[in-house]
């Protein structure tokens, strides 16, 4: 009998498992695939590793005409080899770390038998409490020829870069992978059902990312729903309901992700869920009192990201250890690692008017620190409420991943203009230049 069993071993599981084990609880994780879950094995980490050379080439392009003319080529098989060297050992490394903490790992697919019992490979395990942390899996369009489409996990393991790729969708995954594939020499087309890419980001900045990608030769087909994929010799023809046909060597379905709840036995024990995932209350508790959920598998409006999964994992553990406060999320920053990068935290500029807020834009490209990289289109929009507090920011440019983190405390701790003006930042840095400029918009 365990105190707590987590189903899944991603960020939504292992952080909380460690907290509980350190508090003396008997804890196990059940994992059907690789220990450590999506982010580590098939998501953020593998993606950012393959993005590394593409990011450098993107920076070098800024110097065309002002000092650097040649663009180096990416040797994809060597890069993929490096990805395997770095990423493949991480799963065993985490398993070892968890074992040192006394956390048992049960390999296999878990299914509930009753609210206190699961079965894994024919063996039953009982626990006082369970945490469903099974994440999401790539969605697959149910269309003729779906057997020819690949998913993000396949792309992140490609031994060679195909000469041409069609990405279905223009969300986070398609846009990030398209940038990598183009930099590695592939001819890329994105076919998107909606009229725009990167929903959830500032509309102007998302459009600018698209225009820069188009300038590098990436094709976009908007307002088209992919209806079929047909094989044509060694290639594939992607056809849309609107009558477009695009031929490519490789087709990736990047139309979103769905909750991993198949075969989990939720109907057997009566845990409520919908198409978005497992339903929870403000304590991340399902309708069965001893069963919680954490991470991507939850039906939620909070972004499904690694830091939110980690936050929820730690929160569930604290509830199990006696915390009686409902979950309170701080502002959640998010970055799409496109080229150029784009980022968002808090209110979007397009939501500002409804919330009685003002939007101010800082075009950063003319600031010396940004001119040093010739990042001419870099910019920030800040959303300030009626009390003069920062409540949102949208960023575009190569500097965004680090600057958005610097804005997190400005929002969460409601920095005043005086607080910013009396803070000393290292110089010349991007955040050190931008943050003092934001002070003039705050009370
Ligand atoms: C390509 C890609 C890139 C991404 N990039 C970023 C990024 O840059 N930044 C960011 O913040 N987020 C990113 N994300 C999102 C991030 O990976 C997820 O938000 C995060 O991994 C969610 O963690 P989780 O623990 O909830 O789920 P997961 O990490 O998916 O873990 C769930 C685990 O449960 C296991 N499982 C499922 N069902 C069962 C069962 N019945 N029995 C046993 N085990 C089971 C699965 O095998 C899986 O290992 C990316 C995602 C993808 C796909
Ligand atoms: N940098 C990051 O933090 C990061 C990176 C990658 C993934 N993620 C996470 O993974 C999630 C999933 O990413 P995603 O890009 O797969 O999903 P997404 O929801 O961001 O984008 C899917 C896109 O596919 C389009 N689409 C759906 N059906 C279509 C059809 N039939 N034809 C053409 N287009 C169609 C949708 O309109 C949408 O724009 C993200 O929401 C995020 O939570 C985060």
TrEMBL record:
Residues 2-310 form the FAD/NAD(P)-binding domain. It comes from the Bacteria. Residues 332-432 form the Pyridine nucleotide-disulphide oxidoreductase dimerisation domain. Its cofactor is FAD. Its EC number is 1.8.1.4. The keyword Flavoprotein applies. GO terms for molecular function: dihydrolipoyl dehydrogenase (NADH) activity. Keywords: FAD, Flavoprotein, Oxidoreductase. Belongs to the class-I pyridine nucleotide-disulfide oxidoreductase family. This is Dihydrolipoyl dehydrogenase. It comes from Periweissella ghanensis.
